[in-house]
Amino acid sequence: MEQAVSYMSDGLRIAGMMTIPDAPATGPRPAILILHGFGGHKNGVQQQWSHRFFSDLGYVTLRIDFRGCGDSEGKRGAILPHGQVSDVINGVEFLRGRPEVDPSRIAVSGTSYGATVAVYAAGICPKISAVIAQGGWANGEAMFRRIHATPEKWAAFTELLVKARAAGHGSDMTAQRYDIIWIPDRLRQNIDKTSILDFAIETIPETLAFNAGDVAAQIYPRPLLIIHSAKDEVITADGSIDIFRAAGYHGDLHILNGVDHFMFEEEDGRVASIIRNWLARAMPA
Q: Is residue 204 part of a domain?
């Protein structure tokens, strides 16, 4: 059973889609909060794959639009990571209040930007029981330096950053998606037409200063699964390695060849097997 839901986060209405498995249950179920990537939304292909996969395993799922994205309230395209962390924590509280959900067993699963937000949220919110982070990073500046790796690219990004800092919070200035986080042309088909392409310029310094690695060690001893493409052309695998290191080498880290940054939509059996087996140990349904 799938139903549209919403909850409040810092005075903003956050839109979500909740799925309750069809199979009968003897009591409240564990739940997984599904987080989209940079400027995405709850109905992206990776989010659809995640909710079907988790639901088939017997988990309640809630996939949300972060503030400023999709159907949620908030300034369109203002991707402010600490605001997204609040959206996660408030989403967990929403799930804890649902009769179908076991409040002691709520995980978060995020892809890309959502993976980084998931790690940070779990680091500061002990009510999160487990974390799945695919394609994330630990340090904002390190992430941007790896994306804009040549002197020419870094100079162009630095110029954009200077403009963003001069404009300040709340400016009407925008920046184009691929000037912030570059994606090779052949992978841009994974960004659907309803995703955000122009972002509030304040997104840039806010993201650069966002370091999930600062709190990753606080996830211990809760289960942590980190997955990354070995040859990721968007966010390099160093990002997930940095998370693992910052978490005190806690959890499970998988670096996979043969998949790309958008692996949750590739129907790769290895990815499904890793997640299925990990959940069976970490938070069985």
A: no
Do 44 and 36 form a contact (C-beta atoms < 8 A)? Answer: yes
Task: Answer yes or no: is 49 within a domain.
Answer: yes
Residue 198 — pLDDT band, cuts 50, 70, 90?
A: very high
CATH number of the CATH domain containing 277: 3.40.50.1820
pLDDT digits (tens, 9 = 90+) for 227-265: 999 999 999 999 999 999 999 999 999 999 999 999 998
Q: Domain range for residue 249?
A: 2-140+209-282
Number of structural domains found in the chain: 1
Residue 124 falls within a domain, yes or no?
Answer: yes
Specify if 200 maps to a domain.
Answer: no
